[in-house]
Amino acid sequence: MRARKPKNVKQKLEAYNDLIISNPKSLKGKWHKYIYELCQVKNIVLDLGCGKGNFALEASKHNNDTAFICIDYEALCILAAVKKTRDLNINNVFFIQANSLDISEIFDDGEIDQMHLNFPTPQPKARHENLRLVNKENLINYSKILKNNSCLYFKTDSIPLYLYAKSQFINSCFCIYESPNNCYDDVFKTMASKISSKNSKDAILECSKNSNDSYFLNNIIDTSEVFTEYEIKLQKKGAKIYSLCARFNNNANIQKDHSKLLSPYFASLYDYLPSDLKTLKYVPYGMDEYVENMLNKNAKNQSKNQQQQEN
Ligand SMILES: C[S@@+](CC[C@H](N)C(=O)[O-])C[C@H]1O[C@@H](n2cnc3c(N)ncnc32)[C@H](O)[C@@H]1O
């Protein structure tokens, strides 16, 4: 049964007008001035698909020289987040109820100092690829609003989404620094090694060599110890976390090379799963229904074949 939506969410949100930015498009190009007037800080960190805001609220406690702008299109998430912000008396976290795909209409080039994509909705179907926050077109839009040399951090429980995203980051001219904690289950090792083909490894190394970077370089805030709501929830279900830090590289030569690099690339995230789904130890968030249906379908086919053989 579907959970009933609480009533009057819109009216309830009105009580938090000081925390919700209701006219974000009108602030395009003026964010730093606006934020400075609000809370006298200079850095702006963006959390896309913030959910109930736990990540930014936790990170803000240790970073009072930074403003966190959190975007989610779900009114209920924003409502839960602003309630917590008020209860905790935090004054450097603000919320926008909007579609993250419209980001270029809200922020101008170079206005953002750091960006986080924590457990973005995977949108596994091929026909929904354009809705995936980590697809190439969206990443290119993020690269524009990020300040030069600034970082984008991405975390997920889903190896299929991670591998897909990795190819998209590299092919959209980002240098990536993968977390040393990423650890692939055996069933994904072949796929992961194909994607970390020699060429792509060379490209990643080339980026690092050029910039003397390490995984958490240039970050405004160190979020390595800050956990998101989904991170905690999914880890309890047995998830391992895969993360990377990406930095836009405006070296045109590298972009040219990268455009031909990574293979294989699949539009559908289901194509990154192992062929024998029974070998999956953990089903990534957003894929439960598909995996269950396929397992049932395979079991039915197997028993049908068995019956035919017996007859
Ligand atoms: C899986 S939750 C992750 C929440 C949070 N980042 C965390 O790690 O706990 C994904 C969130 O992204 C939001 N979301 C998905 N697509 C979005 C989009 N295009 N624009 C804004 N929010 C989006 C959903 O409403 C949801 O709250």
Features:
alpha/beta, Rossmann fold, binds S-adenosylmethionine, 41% helix
What are the SSEs and their pairings?
Elements: H1 9-14, H2 31-39, E1 43-48, H3 54-61, E2 66-72, H4 75-88, E3 93-97, H5 103-106, E4 112-118, H6 136-145, E5 146-156, H7 159-171, E6 174-178, H8 186-195, H9 198-211, H10 229-236, E7 242-248, H11 252-258, H12 288-310
Parallel strand pairs: 1-2, 1-4, 2-3, 4-5
Antiparallel strand pairs: 5-7, 6-7
Detailed description of the structure:
This protein has helices spanning 9-14, 31-39, 54-61, 75-88, 103-106, 136-145, 159-171, 186-195, 198-211, 229-236, 252-258, 288-310; strands spanning 43-48, 66-72, 93-97, 112-118, 146-156, 174-178, 242-248. 41% of the residues lie in helices and 15% in strands. It has one domain: Vaccinia Virus protein VP39 (Rossmann fold, 3-Layer(aba) Sandwich), CATH 3.40.50.150. Mean pLDDT is 86; it is low at 208-212 and 252-259. The chain starts with 8 loop residues before the first helix and ends with a helix. It has a 7-stranded mixed β-sheet, with helices on both faces. It has 311 residues and is an alpha/beta fold. The chain contains 12 helices and 7 strands. The structure holds S-adenosylmethionine.
**What is the gyration radius calculated from CA atoms?**
21 Å
Q: What coarse outline follows from CA principal-axis ratios? A: globular
SSE string, helices as H and strands as E:
HHEHEHEHEHEHEHHHEHH
What is the percentage of strand-forming residues?
A: 15-25%
CATH-assigned fold name:
Rossmann fold
How many domains is the backbone divided into? 1
Total beta strands: 7
Number of helices: 12
CATH class category name: Alpha Beta
**Which compounds are bound in this model?**
S-adenosylmethionine
Question: What is the second-level CATH architecture?
Answer: 3-Layer(aba) Sandwich
Distance between the termini: 42 Å
Assembly form of the protein: single chain
